[in-house]
Amino acid sequence: MARTPSSQVFTVSQLNQRARQLLEVSFASVRVEGEISNLSRPSSGHWYFTLKDNAAQVRCAMFRSRVAGIRFAVKEGDKVEIRAKVSLYENRGDYQLIVDAMKPAGEGALQLAFEQLKSRLAAEGLFAAGHKQPLPMVRRVALITSPSGAAIHDMLTVLKRRDPAIAVDIYPTQVQGSDASGQIVAAINRANRDQQADVIILGRGGGSLEDLWCFNEETVARALFASRLPVISAVGHETDVTIADFVADVRAPTPSAAAELISRDQQVQQQRLLQLQQRLQHNWQQRLRYQQHQLHTLFRRLRTPQQQLNSAAQALDQLEIRLHNAWRHQQQQRQQRLQYLHQVLQHQHPSRTLQQYQQQLQQLQQRLHQGMHQQLGQRKQQLGQQLHLLNNLSPLQVLSRGYSLTTSSAGQVLDNAAAATPGSRVHTRLNQGWLECEVIQAHADN
Q: Catalyzes what (predicted)?
């Protein structure tokens, strides 16, 4: 029995492939603004990063061929606007954006210069409402624009349709490029010198900020401010804004609108134009939807070699990133192990044991010094006591009390008078000094 689509069983690869095809068809080109984080630049030249805002984030891949077109330095935290298609990295099943182009979000260099000049001229009063001239009844208009652009065709068509009686003087100039601003200033001055037109229309079609830059030059702004004829600025589309729009007496959203502004209104033709515009828009939208459907059908069937190569390159980059992270983790572990072994070695180093022994030796030396000092004190105290005792027992101590000591010439102590014979010489030791005597007579006690 054949399976119905709802009961079909997919493999994971088939499911991811089908999901990728649906995403790439449904979101073939989107513009997204956010902040760059987790920026990775592998050696392949591809970029991988996360685009985030305050509430969500999405992974992005930008391949080397697209990276080469970036003309500004990209770093973590930058706010950017990208053009990308929504896809799915089949190997992991991750939803991601494949980035085709990137530019800084917000003001670029030209936009910054525009704002700075705008602020300076506004401070000088060039935009003040008091300097604006009212539009008169127009019988003759001076068109300053490119003679080959769409703007002059649109303005002439509108004037012819709405008010063919208005005379037109064309002052052809360049409206893009380095020479354009000088030609525009010359045309404004010439129209004022001719004094034939009632009003000036300065116009051109839409374009980028760079394309319209000649209308942001200071020389053009000052020529418009000095013009004696009222000036209508009709540069670009309705969303385009230039310095000329602020200085001019009147700003028209488009060149066609400027022509309508100076011509008399015809309700019927306006209504008809609106109907034609709606029909054209409706037919264009129908045609566009049909072409998109055809394109999506063909795109579903086609997976280009470049896409396969990009997927393989992305897988290789992911492996390279994993290898780099693993190597870095291993290096960190080895570094930690080396630090641990170094600490163990320092703890067991002979100098540590030698230091302990030196401390013990110092303690023993201190104890020996203290013991010797204590023993010497005790010995001194004992010696003093012995000296005191010896001094008390010394014959000299007895002599100090008035006694004397008599010895024979041979040095024998005489303690009996009978030991001394008359005529012999004896020595008598006194407390102080001694006497040498001759025995005249000896008297012995019975």
A: Exonucleolytic cleavage in either 5'- to 3'- or 3'- to 5'-direction to yield nucleoside 5'-phosphates
Question: For position 116, what pLDDT does the model report?
Answer: 82
For 6, 9, 52, 284, 287, the CA distances from 297, given in Å and listed in that order, are: 21, 23, 32, 20, 15
- What phi, psi does 80 have (nearest 5°)? -130, 160
Backbone angles phi, psi at 279, to 5 degrees: -65, -45
| Contact between residue 217 and residue 91 where contact means Cβ atoms under 8 Å apart | no
Q: Which domains does the chain have, with CATH numbers?
A: 10-104 (2.40.50.140), 109-265 (3.40.50.261), 398-438 (no CATH)
User: Edge-to-edge strands of the sheet including 434-438?
Assistant: 405-408, 425-429, 434-438
The CA-based angle 431-433-438, given to 5 degrees, is 105
Contacts of 248 (CB under 8 A, 6+ apart): 202, 224, 231, 232, 233
Distance CA 169, CA 331 (A): 79
Nearest 5°: phi and psi at 48? -130, 135
| Pairing relationship of beta strands 167-172 and 140-145 according to DSSP bridges | parallel
Separation of CA 381 from chain center? 83
Partnered with residue 34 across adjacent β-strands are 80
Residue 385 CB-density burial (10 A; 0-12 exposed, 13-18 middle, 19+ buried):
exposed
Q: Is the pLDDT of residue 1 over 50?
A: no
Q: Hey, what are 332's tokens?
A: 């960190």
- Euclidean distance between CA atoms 214 and 176, whole angstroms: 6
Query: Which tens digit of pLDDT belongs to each residue from 191-232?
Result: 999 989 999 999 998 877 778 889 999 999 999 999 999 999
The closest of 87, 102, 92 to 18, measured between CA atoms, is 87
Give the strands of the sheet with 167-172, arranged side by side: 167-172, 140-145, 199-204, 231-235, 250-251
Distance CA 208, CA 215 (A): 12
Distance of CA 445 to the CA centre of its chain: 128
User: How many angstroms separate the CA atoms of 391 and 405, rounded?
Assistant: 17
Strand, helix or coil for residue 28: coil
N- to C-terminal Cα separation, the chain: 171
Kind of pairing, strands 47-52 and 57-62?
Answer: antiparallel
According to DSSP, the β-strands at 140-145 and 79-89 are unpaired
In this structure, what token pair is assigned to residue 170?
């064309």
- Measuring CA to CA, how many Å separate 363 from each of 352, 369, 376, 421? 17, 10, 20, 72
pLDDT at residue 392 tops 90: no
Q: How many whole angstroms separate alpha carbon 98 and alpha carbon 63? A: 8
